[in-house]
Specification:
- Helix 2 crosses helix 11 (246-258) and helix 4 runs antiparallel to helix 6.
- The longest helix has 35 residues, at 2-36.
- The protein has 22 helices and no strands.
- The chain starts with a helix and ends with a helix.
- The protein is mainly α.
- Helix content is 83%, strand content 0%.
- It has two domains: 1-15 and 226-483, no CATH class; 37-207, no CATH class.
């Protein structure tokens, strides 16, 4: 178990470098952008990114999951044909669909943003989507081949280039929102070209219809889950823009940005864990390893949720002007939604192990329907608070259904779900105490909350992981004596 856990942690840290840098850059740019863009501008930017993320996700046709599922079942020559077939199909499909949508860019701008004058931003986003669907596959190839250095080169290089260009176009050349989207397009051109060159040996000009059918058959099963996951995570922005104000979308986006360390952890873990899980799936020790890893994973996410929630007020007051300050109020609800989203990424993976992706999609569909329905009531009445609550409820529902079906169809892997919920809920009263401290903002409150954080972490470890902690201390003392 120790070696397996060390391997997962090591890979998570390696794959998390790019995500960590992305979040760091996000926090670095936050005080700059919030002083250049109004909350309404932030809302426009966030809505376009939201719609673009949906289109980009759908244009992968769910084949990321099928690629990982079947890659190791092919010999080396067929792996090249597999990657080539997916890449060629994605290129032509995304180019055709985005070209058609470009013809209606003014109508799309008017329908989504209420004004057709932002059509140029729509055009830049569509061009960027074509490139992103191509280099997404190159990233998956590097992951499945465990080429971590090149993976981080693509992620980190693209982020740094986009950041430099964004500052140049927005801050110095004062191109506004256009400069932000133009920087994204230029950086995608460079990183897409680089990533295709790095993975060039994984491609050929061969195209196999039978392989494409196999990939689409499996991949299409993921599309409902991908679409409904977008509905749960992002459609609330559209509701806010319609039933509230664009400035509320901007405030909500800042709240989500403060909560992103949670998603950083969950996405980094999944990036590292999925290839390892499929590789070790049939080993005798896998059920125990998976169960224990899931417990540690839930605990670590809870610590991050606690930290984001306790210090959200301080982050907002330090990094943003007054017009954005109320965004900290919604961070705890948003982080708990992300927590259940992250748990679902691991705990429901048994449905893919059992070749039952449709049940996973069904859990996402039910969660999305719940989210979409509740949005009609909660968002007009409670605005940002309503959006936060409906998203949390949807993620919780999706997690519970996914876990239930995963245990049913793949009973070989079971998690201690009771202990997981005890750990997750243990932090709630301390978050409430932190918010009571924050009724009047003062720097001294940071010290009080830091003390609360240390207390929670230590007490949680003593309550739930006393035996594990003793074993770690015993091994440390033993190794110290040997030295």
């Amino acid at each position: 178990m120790g070696k397996y856990l060390k391997s997962v942690v090591k890979d998570t840290l390696k794959y998390g470098i790019g995500s960590v840098l992305q979040r760091f850059i996000g926090f670095f740019l936050m005080p700059i952008y919030t002083r250049i863009f109004t909350p309404a501008d932030y809302g426009i930017m966030n809505i376009i990114f939201t719609v673009s993320s949906l289109l980009g996700t759908l244009l992968t046709f769910g084949m990321a999951g099928s690629f990982f599922r079947y890659y190791h079942e092919y010999d080396e020559d067929d792996k090249v044909v597999l990657a080539s077939t997916i890449q060629i199909f994605r290129l032509f499909a995304s180019f055709l669909i985005c070209s058609v949508l470009a013809l209606f860019s003014k109508q799309i701008s008017g329908g989504v943003l209420g004004d057709g004058k932002y059509y140029d931003l729509i055009l830049l986003s569509l061009a960027t989507i074509i490139l992103s669907t191509m280099w997404d596959l190159t990233v998956d190839i590097l992951r499945v081949q465990f080429r971590v250095i090149w993976y981080n080169y693509i992620q980190v290089g693209g982020l740094l280039l986009q950041t430099v260009l964004s500052i140049l176009f927005v801050v110095f050349l004062k191109y506004g929102l256009f400069g932000l989207f133009f920087a994204q397009l230029i950086s995608n051109i460079v990183i897409c070209s680089s990533s295709l060159w790095i993975t060039r040996k994984s491609y050929s000009l061969k195209f196999n219809i039978s392989i494409l059918k196999n990939q689409l058959t499996f991949g299409i099963g993921f599309l409902p889950s991908l679409f409904t996951n977008w509905v749960t995570s992002s459609s609330d922005r559209i509701f806010l823009s319609r039933f509230a104000k664009l400035s509320d979308v901007g405030i909500y986006s800042i709240s989500n940005q403060i909560a992103t360390p949670v998603r950083l952890l969950t996405s980094s873990f999944r990036t590292a864990w999925v290839p390892t899980a499929y590789r070790d799936l049939n080993k005798d020790e896998s059920p125990r390893n998976f169960s224990q890893t899931g417990l540690y994973y839930a605990t670590l996410i809870s610590f991050v949720v606690l930290g984001c929630s306790l210090f959200s007020s301080d982050i907002v007051h330090i990094l943003t002007p007054e017009s954005y300050h109320r965004s900290y109020l919604y961070v705890p609800i948003i982080t708990y939604g992300m927590l259940f989203e992250g748990l679902n990424l691991m705990f429901a993976e048994g449905l893919n192990f059992a070749n039952k992706p449709y049940y996973r999609s069904l859990s996402f569909v039910i969660g999305a329907i719940l989210n979409f329905s509740l949005n009609f009531y909660f968002i007009p009445k409670f605005q940002i608070l309503g959006a936060s609550i409906t998203t949390l409820l949807a993620y919780l529902t999706t997690f519970l259904l996914g876990y239930y079906w995963a245990v049913k169809f793949y009973p070989r892997i079971k998690y201690d779900i009771r202990k997981v919920f005890l750990i997750v809920l243990y932090c709630v009263p301390f978050i409430v105490i932190g918010f009571l401290i924050d009724r009047e903002y003062a720097l001294i409150n940071i010290l009080y909350k830091f003390g609360i954080y240390i207390l929670v972490v230590c007490s949680l470890i003593l309550i739930f992981f006393r035996v594990d902690a003793k074993n770690v201390i015993r091994r440390y003392r033993k190794s110290s004596k040997e030295v």
